[in-house]
Design a protein that fits this description.
Helices cover 34% and strands 18% of the residues. By secondary structure, it is of the alpha/beta class.
Length: 217
């Protein structure tokens, strides 16, 4: 297990409850820097936030445990003098879809959207659409809406056991999103195993390690 005094977690805020649950289970207390999940909308801005966080870390920190995925190329060409350990996954949804018997870089199904947040209100397709199309005319909005309906068929609730995803409120929000894309709701099994392995130092498979001593990943 990494040394607490020289280790820091760099995590997407969408995974806060999962990081905290893993720290509690393992008895670790690594300091954590949270990256705003809203930065996912613009990978370049997420990349800038990642680089800034790494550049500003205390000199005594030599190991950074990354609780997030590659996320649209946000980690491309990132530089640091510290050892960085990052799950080899495309995004946070895939990270939570891992189980003891299922792993991979991208575990998502085409046409499926994944609800994983603690607060179901954080996943709102209609709100996201309204923000994205605010500057378009009604005809363009209708075309974009139809493209979303054509692209997605399912809303999948990721059940890791760390979110009350079977509550009436959660199911209602999931159904609302599914209705908006004229799709259906599913519950899929996931777990917190990737973050637990990350914090425990179990990096033999499924992780990318950037070691400044040899510049290999």
């Amino acid at each position: 297990m990494p040394t607490t005094s020289s280790t820091m977690i760099l995590a997407c805020s969408s995974l806060e409850e999962y990081v905290n649950a893993a720290q509690c289970k393992l008895g670790t207390n690594y300091p954590t820097i949270w990256l705003d999940k809203r930065l996912h909308a613009e990978p370049q801005k997420m990349r800038e936030a990642i680089q800034h966080a790494l550049d500003e870390m205390p000199v005594e920190i030599d190991t950074v445990l990354v609780a997030m995925g590659y996320c649209g190329g946000s980690w491309k060409d990132i530089q640091s003098s510290k050892m960085i350990v990052r799950p080899h996954v495309d995004d946070c949804a895939t990270l939570l879809l891992h189980t003891p018997t299922l792993s991979g870089f991208n575990l998502k199904q085409q046409g499926h959207l994944y609800m994983k947040d603690h607060d179901p209100k954080d996943f709102n397709l209609e709100k996201a659409f309204s923000g994205y199309t605010a500057k378009f005319d009604e005809a363009t909005k209708a075309q974009i809406k139809q493209s979303w309906v054509n692209a997605y068929t399912d809303v999948d609730i990721v059940d890791t056991g760390h979110t009350d995803c079977h509550s009436p409120e959660y199911k209602q929000m999931a159904q609302m999103n599914a209705d908006w894309i004229e799709g259906k709701v599913n519950v899929v099994h996931g777990s917190n195993i990737v973050i637990e392995r990350l914090l425990a130092g179990d990096w033999s498979t499924g992780f990318r390690i950037m070691n400044p001593r040899n510049e290999q990943e």
